[in-house]
Predict the 3D structure of the following.
Amino acid sequence: MNNGIQEKVVVITGASSGIGESTARHLSAKGANLVLGARRLDRLEKLAAELRGAGGKVEVLTTDVTRRQDVAALVKLAVSKFGRIDVLVNNAGIMPLAPFSALKIDEWDAMIDVNIKGVLYGIAAALPEFQKQKSGHFVNLSSVAGIKVFSPGGSVYSGTKFAVRAISDGLRHEVGKDIRTTIILPGLVDSELKHNTTHKETSEGVLQLYQIAIPSDAVARSIVYAIEQPADVDINEIVLRPTAQDF
């Protein structure tokens, strides 16, 4: 009996750690064919070797989502190796937090480039394939900070995650009945995001806050749930957070 995952071709950005890595493990165990992208090729190759050792089918490619051609190449790899792409998980993201007064303008630019433009480049790469196939599924990672502004310190990050939510919902409306769109909005998750902050005082607060974080595995399971539904069921939004998190 097909589990809704078996033989699906799934492309994941930011797959070298955290939510991306956990999602790859879960999907591979259920029989998905994976194409994994991230900047750290050594981490990708190590993960791929492990998954292949357990019988998984995995391709990897160095991918910087701020480079449109990298994201296009990742999707092209999926189509050339497996003949199609069924799911794109736009997971890559960064979260350098600081108050506006710190004027971390380079970090604002980086968040816009990775968190917003990276998602758009993924959509641009996969949408023509999905339309050609008359099927496909976008899974875009937002955040609870895309529901409520995380301030002080996270206003720009929240802005990028509000944007992902708006883009995703507009995409859902535009693509019609053949293509599914899911927004995942996690709270505090144990991943490398908590180490992105260079502003000393904010970083100390972030590390304290993240003591209640849930494992990335929890988010991976929610992504699997959305993907494994029948084609006529579109799980549009999943919000999950630690039980102890109050925002």
Q: What stands out?
A: Helices lie at 18-29, 41-53, 68-82, 105-133, 155-175, 200-209, 216-227. The first strand starts at residue 9 and ends at 12. The domain at 9-240 is CATH 3.40.50.720 (Rossmann fold). The chain has a mean pLDDT of 96.
